[in-house]
Write a structure and sequence with these properties.
The chain has a domain of 52 residues. 12% of the residues lie in helices and 20% in strands.
Length: 81
């Protein structure tokens, strides 16, 4: 899966200085100071695999703690946004 731009994004997070572009790409997000929301697109193979397994992995670049996260397929904003 890869992060993609979306209407309503407010900034783009850049990779950490110690990572290469191959390791980490820019991440378009919406943030309101309390949460960050990003949009990801699956390629054809990933969609088929998810369809049959219903499983998805999540990883955050942190080794000491796990911030609260969620994965969602429904639009996360109010319809007026």
């Amino acid at each position: 899966m890869k992060p993609i731009e979306f209407k309503g994004q407010t900034k783009v997070l850049q990779r950490p200085y110690n990572m290469t572009e191959a390791d980490c790409s820019p991440l378009p997000i919406f943030t309101n100071g309390k949460q960050c929301i990003s949009l990801w697109k699956a390629n054809f193979y990933e969609r088929i695999k998810f369809l049959f397994t219903g499983k998805m992995w999540h990883s955050s670049h942190s080794g000491k703690t796990q911030p609260p996260v969620w994965l969602k397929v429904n639009y996360p904003f109010n319809k007026g946004t």
